[in-house]
Amino acid sequence: MTTIDYERAPSVAEAGPDSELARRLQKMWETAPGLKGVLGSVDHKEIGIRYMVTAFVFLALGGLEAVVMRLQLAGPNEHLLTPEQYDQIFSAHGMTMIFLYAGPILSGFSNYLWPLLLGARDMALPRLNAFSYWVFLCAGIFLYAGIALGYGPNDGWFNYVPYAARQYNGGPNMDIYSLGMILLGISTTAGAINFVVTFLRMRAPGMSVNRVPILIWGTLTVSAANIFAIPSVSLAFFLLWMDRNVGTHFFDVNAGGQPLLWQHLFWMFGHPWVYAIVLPAMGMVSDGLPVFCRRPLVGYAAVALATIATMVLGFGVWVHHMFATGLPNIALSFFSAASIIIAVPSSVAVFAWIATIWGGRPIFTTAFLFFASFIVLFVIGGVSGFMTGSVPVDWQLTDTYFVVAHIHYVLIGINVFPVVGATYFWFPKFTGRLMDERLGRWNFWIMFIGFNIAFLPMHLTGLRGMPRRIYTYDADMGWNTLNMITSVGSLLFAIGVLLFFWNVFVSRKHGRIAGDNPWDAPTLEWATTSPPPPYNFVVIPTVGSRHPLWEGRLNETRSDTYVEAGLVLDKGRENVGTTPLDAQPDAILKMPGDSLAPFILSLCLTAIFVGLLLNLWVLVGLALVASAAAVLGWLWPESKLGETRAGVHV
Amino acid sequence: MSDRVTIQAKLPVGAIDTRASGWWAMIFVIFTEGALFAYLLFSYFYIAVQPHVYGDWPDGGIPSLSLALPNTIILLLSSVAVYWGERGRRLGSNNRLIAGLAIGLILGIAFLVIQYFEWAERPFSLSSSAYGSLYFTITGFHMMHVIAGVIGLAAMLVWSINGYFDRVRYAPIQIGSLYWHFVDAVWLCVFFTFYITPRLG
User: Is B113 exposed, middle or buried (0-12, 13-18, 19+ CB in 10 A)?
Assistant: First the structure.
């Protein structure tokens, strides 16, 4: 092993994808072939794709659960499912969609896109990135193993005590859910830390904070929020597990505990999480929509600030999930006001998108249709949220299908529609091929019409008093027709989603060849080849404006972005480290290569949770020791990463 | 080609001071861990302010300071020792780093031992009341952090003895000691909550 230079001025050169430099970088950066590469890859693109594929598998599973529920509810007094089965399926559906699909899918897009958008070669902490994926996968398998064995969660995704306490819920269902959620929290936290550090250190020279795409603002904001919010829910689930397994009394009112503590801890996390699974999706629209309007986004600064404002306010509204729990009026008033004020930053973004379409020359691609329809669905979901933010209205509507309609307009409207649109938009970058536009139109209209047939009438079902989470209902309640319409619409929506999967599947091999920049888009990911090489950029670009690839056409800045010429970092895996605000180079960072440590540590952690679940304390102890060893092996200073003094070989 | 792209200045290569990615990662690990303790202490105060109809609060009277206060001082001294050693590394003395880490490690272990006796003296248990649950869970969470920190200090000690670092390049020490200072600082919050706030009422 050779020692590294501890100080150097990076050289600057012009080099393209066919240069000798590119061939050397390819050797340094490509993932090893075979099993070692599969388990050890730290390439953010590989990890991003894994995240997306895994999340889409969970979307399909959650969708299947939804279809079964809608068959059960299509008519009165159906007996397709027993009440116990229905409990598990609606809880598993919520858990799957909210925790295993909606968050991870956005992590997938951001993982793939962040370094490309920022002009970097990888995330700041590539091994932590691999770790967050493996832990997510382990948590997903852990939770779904419970469902497969008939022990899925059966108390709703927010899992209130005392229903979830041992004496009312004796099986292992809640233990599996609790432990799986803590494991998933570790994954989310690791990912969040990585995004924040990447934002602060890995932006290409010249990409000051006012030049980053809105998707970066979205993911950054929710990552910062997750760092503070995730511990709350992990703790809540841990306390619940302790109450159920080792006899503590946190939620047990007979020994001085307090059941409402669960709701506070859950929703202090839960409401920020709602924004965590929509803000990056809104960011994808803010970046994608203007491309099809052939103009920059209207109100960049306002939209970026609105993103942050939404998140900050989002920490102060958790009690609106608890309006009906008998809290004092003064608390209700405060949280109601905060919930209603959130409409302001949300509207800022909505008006910016509308103005962008209004002032542009829209091209009606499938991606555009998804992005534009998202605005409509966001407004409908926003208005029903605004309504339930008012205490008296909430008292009337809480625990009815009105709230179910609201949450689906918000989560499908602001997550699924932008995600599908973003897939049409970025698929050519991921694969080098375009998705089929004709199939895309069918895909869009079936999803859009199916969704609205399913969920628009559901508001009325709620206003007519149908409670959520009941497994069936009598024929004389006046809900029959509405439920039948919803069931038909949801089946149509499911067909639309299947068409989307089909389009992805077919276009992957047979789509039209895309080229580097098929949409003529302005941001850096389109400056490299499709799909990008393992090192992303042959030379590190220098960024001179917010729209690096549109500079010739826009008069907003001098044209001084350089993509073909830039820093040559070729002494091993390297990236330039830049200052947090102005993105001025201040270090050459050594980047780690393939490593099995993240995978091994994930297995050790999962073993701890399996031990806790089965109360096998020996396994817990052994797995803890193994985890500590894996962490030490991972963090042991390495001379080739420049972590030790010159002359030391580790 | 514009002069914007040229960099004349030499840049350090690899993990160095606050430019190391690991240093930034540790800052955010501390934020998230700090948040975890904030939620733990929130849970304590949330239950503490409820009417106590099922027994005493705190259970078994206000906890004694006879072990807890000296132990708090021991933990703080261990932070001082680690800081002293780290500063020695910056001034060029590897031996001072080794001494500082060794003292910090011994004091950290001493804290764990004394904490064991502190636990043994408690008149309640994890499962006897909500107070007991909170006491052992929160101090237990802190214990786990001290154990992680002690393992970290031991690793840092080995690395220092192996001579991995010099006066510029010792980022693993800077990052590790940051964690140790956090573990000590958060104990002050736990200590204040359990041992001091009941005396204020």
Answer: exposed
